[in-house]
Amino acid sequence: MLPFALTIFTGAFLLFQVQPLIGKYILPWFGGSPGVWTTCLLFFQTLLLGGYAYAHFSSTRLKLKNQAWLHFVLLALALVLLPITPSESWKAHVAGDPTWHILLLLTASIGLPYFVLSSTGPLMQQWFSVTHPGVSPYRLYALSNIGSLLALLSYPIFFEVKFSRQAQATLWSIGLGGFVLLCGYCTWLVRRAARKNLVAERVDNGGREEPVAPPTIGTRLLWLTLPAIASVLLLATTNKLCQEVAVIPFLWVFPLGLYLVSFIVCFDHVRWYRRDVFAALLVLGIAAVCTLIPAGNDAPMWLQVAG
What we know:
By secondary structure, this protein is mainly alpha-helical. It has a single domain (2-200, 247-273), classed as Up-down Bundle (Growth Hormone, Chain: A), CATH 1.20.1250.20. The chain has 11 helices and 2 strands, in the order αααααααββαααα. It has helices at 2-26, 34-61, 64-80, 99-118, 120-131, 138-162, 165-195, 217-244, 249-268, 275-295, 301-306, and strands spanning 203-204, 208-209. Strands 1-2 form a two-stranded antiparallel sheet. The longest helix has 31 residues, at 165-195. The chain starts with a helix and ends with a helix. Mean pLDDT is 82; it is low at 198-207.
């Protein structure tokens, strides 16, 4: 399990370390408005979804050997595109809404590395299931979110104050190189598993597979809608904090950190998640926000952030 755990942790750490770094780079270029970070967050969330989709389709449509080769090629291309620091040419004055300009900048600067890193969690879990049949991979997803959370917390209190932006980008590039080595080793393990035909099959009743009913359309839509609503709430909350309080890295990191904690709670072990408790907390949270929004700046800053 250790190679997959290290790869997932490293990938998640790099994935969320680069978000405040690249945001700090381009924020002064576009006036420092809350909309700049909201656009960055929109880009990161969309590309994260794209990475998950890539992991899903490559694992279901490609043979294991081809899947491993494809991912390793994408990793190599991500290294070729380093460094991630955006070119000064992107600073050129943009008339009107800069949203599309920011999205193009992010795509050109960190698009492929971020895309590859975003697919790490689900892809490594699937590879772990291949090499360790019968062992649940879902605690690795909790580990992934722990890595992401540590990256977010360490940025404003350590990396931002100890290193220049250029040094941060250099360290991140070195980290990506180490991640590629770890991922390459996992690729070798998966290819070896494919050669030895270690894919586990659930067999019952004299060698026949136990039939499993496919999820209904309504269930699939629910699976898509619930995380979509969570993502919308994350974007809206972050934008509100930046508008009402300040456009600073801590207030980008704080709601995103809580978002990640929710995944750690849900996926680490069933004992941590009690639906009735969290449903009650959600009702209280919504009531608090509905009270605070009309109050606006009349409410104390600490109460706005807490809400």
